[in-house]
């Protein structure tokens, strides 16, 4: 082949390649999900959609729509601006695109707080490329089922119920091997909110043990929820094995639950004390508290947790415990002939105090502690923690039923000792202590608790004549004047200190306010700058719109006329939107400017006040 022919073929080859490249430019297409997107009510989800190959879509027109709506637009963006006026009100403040992802051709829609009505087919469109994709959204709602147990003659009836489902679910009963068992037909009710409630019952002979599973499932949203129950032929009550201990004024729980766990929401639950009339501390029948049969001593002080009842927990909450609450309580569920007995021990404690006095050549320490219940024991310990002999403990019980205990120990003067007074009550596991150190010069060091020291001193004044008495009186008068002067000076100094502290606090507050105001002014100036750029951009877009409108108007008389008229209508809408955005931007700029002026005036005033405070503090 001659060189000329080869050259011609190469030129022709490159021309064809260039032609094909030019023809393929702009043939971007839309990629969406191949399977429905599934979301639960209340979720925030993404409806995926992106251009392939990726191009910057920030300034492109992007439309998300739902054909069964009027207006149909879920989200519209033109020339980099969201057009809220064309958006369906059902989606107000619930849709958005990521600007950073738009730069990569990702025009996926974020839909917040999904509603049941959001389910359907969405269309993602970029008109410039004629590219679109359909996305199916399936909206679901689920909840865990609950199993309730009741007895009818010689049978135990289990009812499984689950509400708040969408789409309509299926309810199945399974045995412990996971195999389906026969049950009553499922009842289905759809509420005013569009959600479904399903329920079904299964009966079991008494005297046998069974394990069952209630399964509620919805395959189209891939959701399964289950509840399990074990039915024992001998249901029983579980309570505490040790006494429950509480302090006066506490809120406590008396534990009691059914084993195996069953829903006790509609069962009869009795809490009683046989030493009371009426004996009921708390009574509940068919899900209702019977206050008329309750002992008045427990009015508004007892309650059960409704949520825990569903799990078989019938523990009693007793508030503001009193000394009279101590005793034996019985927890009873008549349907199961199940009961549990427990003991409540009520206690009261306080820290002991040590007082010191001197009698001749001895130092007497007296320890006292009041407000105890049950009656406590008082012990004296030395520095090695060993018991020492002391006077017998005196015990007094007050009208409130609480005990006060006291005891004395004597110490020879001229020696150093360390002592501990311990008050304890083993039945409520409570110990309180006070410590004291007695030195040879009667110097006491206190630790852990307050030590009240009483030193009885006798001052003997012997008269040595009239002159001495007169001199003493004159000295006392002068001393009184001196004390008054010192007191006035001290009060003046105290007032000055308080004023100084007030000025310091005021200065600190002013400085914090100034920092905050500086930040506000800075932020508002940045906002003002952004709004100015936005206004300039909108003015530029309006100029382009007008130029384009002029061009369209000149072409109206030329074919295709219908296309040019449509073009003109689109331009008019776009110009209206840009003008509306411009008005909003101007208003925002005006409001921002007013805030800057107000904050600047506030800043100047604060700076003056701050400077004044600093001068006062220096003087």
Number of domains: 5
Regions with little confidence, pLDDT below 50 for 5+ residues: 1-26, 443-466
How helix-rich are the residues, as a percent range? 25-40%
Quantity of strands, as a count: 38
What is the CATH third-level topology name of the largest domain?
Immunoglobulin-like
Q: How would you describe the shape?
A: flat
* Name of the CATH superfamily of the largest domain: Immunoglobulins
Q: How large, in whole angstroms, is the Cα Rg?
A: 44 Å
Let me know the largest β-sheet: 6 strands, mixed
**Strand portion:** 25-35%
- Strand pairing plus helix content: what structural class? alpha+beta
CATH class of the largest domain: Mainly Beta
CA(first)-CA(last) distance: 108 Å
- Trace the largest sheet across and list its strands: 2-11-10-5-6-7
Structure annotation, total helices: 5
Supply the CATH architecture of the largest domain.
Sandwich
Give average pLDDT, whole number: 82
Multimerization status: single chain
Q: What brief labels describe this structure?
A:
single chain, 619 residues, alpha+beta, Immunoglobulin-like, 5 domains, 6-stranded mixed sheet, 5 helices, 34% strand, flat
